[in-house]
Design goal:
By secondary structure, this protein is mainly alpha-helical. Helices cover about 70% and strands about 5% of the residues. The chain contains 16 helices and 5 strands. The chain has a 3-stranded antiparallel sheet with strand order 4-1-5. The protein has a two-stranded antiparallel sheet with strand order 2-3. A hairpin with a 2-residue loop joins strand 2 and strand 3.
């Protein structure tokens, strides 16, 4: 029995739930970081690390998104990229295939089926990419521990493909658990954790090489750091940008009382797609490189990879084709993801049912077209902003010889994920405070005093 004057338990339970979610996110990141240090069986990591130090920038980008797992050739070396690629394919097929489009309209049950199909696609892509990587290692002398006969054992293919595929599937499951039991989007959190884990070493290596005179000039290092801070400030400014559409509510009679007309606004963000477009675009650009990591060695065995090798080299960062393909992919995914997640007709119908209207616009179809036009213009500027932030800083950083961690894509992902994380934390705190107030009002009403519910 609750005593008078005691604090309500709703706020305490809300804070306890938030604490549990935060601890789960930290625990998931801890598990993820442990997995990046578990090597694939049968591979000579020291020999592969020597290859990594002399390889091109495509592999460095892989290493950045995987949190250093590629450099150590761990079971998480493929990272979450197969899942992202499968999600891209599934979302494109949802528009093109009537059966998948119908599933999407079936609500929660259809969404679960689409999610299950995405998992199967992830398994297939991870298995194919794992097989290519295992074949590349087996065809390269010095990277695989041989058996007593001096040959690559069959067990290596089985263990390597199994370890890499299971690593990707585990990351997919872990990301889903973070989304469900933690805070923010799980996949974004894992990518964020991978990028942030490499930032301290990248900064220390850059500063130490500049101090010894073996790397960048100290003035260039300072310029890169100042430029990165400026990009962070610009990203925060743009992510908070909104276009507020004025919404008026007609007079309504509730019982014997007439409610006066009210005015509000419908906020539309400049970047409604969030961090998804640069992640999708990076995964798309890295797909040829994922099949071509060891193309030079496999080619000596008689397998022709000339076309794939040429495409990979043309798509290296800071090349003209890379700028064109990456920029076009970012703009496409901005429009595509916004169209998938934001439905102007649904918003217009909700406004009409609640008795709200846009001044000067008729409710219903005209309101939907108006909101769609505003959304299209915002998406255009948002796509240009994301493409510019992803590409322009990357070209400057690459030309100065700085690590990829100081590039626009990594900064954009880190800043947007942190802002989304903090927004959801504040949302949980606000909901717990409201629950506490409502609980307190109920208790006062039960005691015979003034309350909201009597």
């Amino acid at each position: 029995m609750t005593k008078q004057g005691t604090l309500p338990q709703a706020g305490q339970s809300g804070h306890a739930e938030l604490k549990a979610r935060l601890l789960f996110v930290l625990f998931a990141i801890f598990v993820y970081r442990i997995g990046t240090h578990i090597p694939v069986p049968g591979i000579d990591n020291e020999a592969f690390r020597s290859l990594f130090t002399s390889t091109d920038s495509v592999l460095s980008m892989f290493n950045m998104f995987s949190g250093g797992a590629v450099e150590r050739m761990s079971i998480f070396a493929l990272g979450i990229i197969p899942y992202i690629s499968a999600s891209i394919i599934m979302q494109l097929l949802t528009v093109a295939v009537p059966y998948l489009e119908q599933l999407k309209k079936e609500g929660e049950a259809g969404r679960r089926q689409i999610t299950q199909l995405t998992r199967y696609g992830t398994l297939l892509l991870a298995a194919v990419q794992s097989f290519f990587i295992a074949t590349g290692f087996a065809s390269t002398e010095g990277y695989v521990f041989l058996n007593v006969d001096g040959e690559v054992p069959l067990s290596f293919y089985v263990s390597a493909v199994t370890a890499l595929t299971c690593g990707t599937m585990f990351l997919m499951w872990l990301g889903e658990q973070i989304t469900e039991r933690g805070i923010s989007n799980g996949i974004s959190i894992l990518i964020f954790a991978g990028i942030v884990s490499g930032l301290p070493s990248a900064i220390s290596e850059t500063v130490s090489s500049a101090s010894t005179g073996g790397g960048m000039h100290p003035a260039a290092v300072l310029a890169v750091l100042v430029f990165a801070l400026a990009i962070v400030a610009f990203v925060v400014f743009m992510e908070r940008g909104q276009r507020r559409i004025t919404i008026n509510y007609a007079k309504r009679q509730q019982g014997r009382h007439m409610q006066a007309a009210q005015s509000s606004h419908l906020p539309l963000k400049v970047n409604m797609a969030g961090v998804i477009p640069p992640i999708f675009a990076s995964s798309l650009v890295l797909i040829p490189g994922s099949f071509n990591l060891f193309s030079d060695n496999v080619e000596r065995e008689g397998v022709s990879w000339e076309i794939l090798t040429t495409i990979t080299r043309l798509l290296e960062p800071n090349t003209p084709l890379y700028f064109i393909v990456f920029g076009a992919a970012v703009i496409f995914f901005c429009y595509f993801y916004t169209a998938v997640t934001f439905n102007p007709r649904e918003v217009a119908e909700n406004l009409k049912r609640s008795g709200a209207f846009v001044p000067g616009i008729r409710p219903g179809e005209q309101t939907a077209r108006y909101i769609d036009g505003v959304s299209a213009r915002l998406t255009f500027f948002g796509a240009l902003y994301i493409a510019a932030v992803s590409l322009f800083p990357q070209s400057i950083v690459t030309s100065l010889g700085a690590p990829f961690y100081f590039g626009g894509t990594s900064i954009l992902i880190v800043v947007v994920v942190v802002m989304d994380f903090m927004a959801q934390v504040q949302s949980h705190l606000m909901s717990s405070q409201y629950a506490s107030l409502m609980k307190k009002s109920n208790q006062k009403g039960a005691d015979g005093r003034a309350g909201l519910f009597r």
